[in-house]
Write a structure and sequence with these properties.
Layout: E1 6-10, H1 17-31, E2 38-42, H2 45-55, E3 60-64, H3 81-86, E4 91-94, H4 97-103, H5 107-120, E5 123-128, H6 132-136, H7 140-151, E6 164-167, H8 181-198, E7 208-211, H9 219-223, E8 230-233, H10 240-253
Helix pairs in contact: 1-2, 1-10, 7-8
Length: about 260
């Protein structure tokens, strides 16, 4: 396995620019020696430029939490891929369950965003995952199959390997509940198989992340799973020490 682990912190709607500057000064020394791990923070739009400047030359990349699929247009309040690229943003989280739930983001928009991000040179993290009701009804695989296939519909097959896919069971996001290692591995393996069905050989290249109440205490166990190549971290990423500990756990996977 030669997939570089990716640990991405999704700050959601937290941290002013001042908060972000204090955070990054605490984080950078803690992750400076973590070779073999890709580290990213997905900040609010207002902090992107400041974080790009403050992380230059470091091990930390800066991602956006969303973007519009069009390069420009009459879309009040939206941000395009070229705008992110101009700031030297490295990637973007796409299709997070909160975007789908609260802002009616549908699979078609997600698919177009993934393709637009790749075309612009951004690394997309495509989020997929089931609700608690869907899991209890035995519909986890159906939901994942739909979201992965729809989410990658507009992505050229030869570029699928560049997309990181984050499996985030909705019932575990921000709840303190976390998927068991068996549940996380089963879902990650299924996602990998779905990608392999779209293009032969891609399943060994694409990075599958786990997200959903990941913290410093459970990260090592989750990141040791054979089909989990990193984590999309929510609440625990808001604390520099905690986030650095999760990144350190990912380094152990590469040894």
């Amino acid at each position: 396995m030669n997939r570089t682990p990716l640990i991405a912190g999704n700050w959601k709607m937290y941290k002013t620019v001042g908060d972000a500057e204090r955070y990054i000064q605490a984080l950078l020394p803690r992750v400076a020696g973590l070779e073999g791990v890709e580290i990213a923070i997905a900040t609010p739009y207002t902090a992107l430029a400041a974080m790009v400047d403050s992380t230059r030359g470091s091990r930390v990349g800066v991602y956006a939490q969303n973007m519009h699929e069009a390069a420009e247009g009459a879309f009040t309040g939206e941000i395009s891929a070229p705008m992110l690229v101009e700031l030297d943003v490295a990637g973007v989280v796409i299709g997070h369950s909160e975007r789908r739930q609260y802002f009616a983001e549908n699979d078609r928009a997600v698919s177009l965003k993934v393709a637009a991000a790749l075309q612009a040179g951004l690394l997309p993290i495509l989020c997929v995952g089931e609700t608690e009701e869907e899991r209890l009804a035995g519909d986890t695989e159906r939901k994942l199959r739909h979201q992965v296939q729809e989410g990658l519909e507009h992505t050229p097959p030869e570029r699928i390997a560049e997309v990181a896919i984050a499996y985030e069971p909705i019932w575990a996001i921000g709840t303190g509940r976390v998927a068991t290692p068996d549940q996380a591995q089963e879902a990650a393996s299924f996602v990998r198989a779905l990608v392999g069905a779209l293009r032969a050989g891609v399943d060994d290249q694409v990075r599958v992340l786990y997200g959903g109440s990941v913290n410093a205490a459970n990260a090592a166990e989750l990141l040791a799973l054979p089909d989990v190549d990193g984590a999309l971290v929510g609440g625990a990423s808001l604390d520099a020490e905690s986030f650095a500990a999760i990144a350190a756990a990912a380094r152990e996977r590469t040894r």
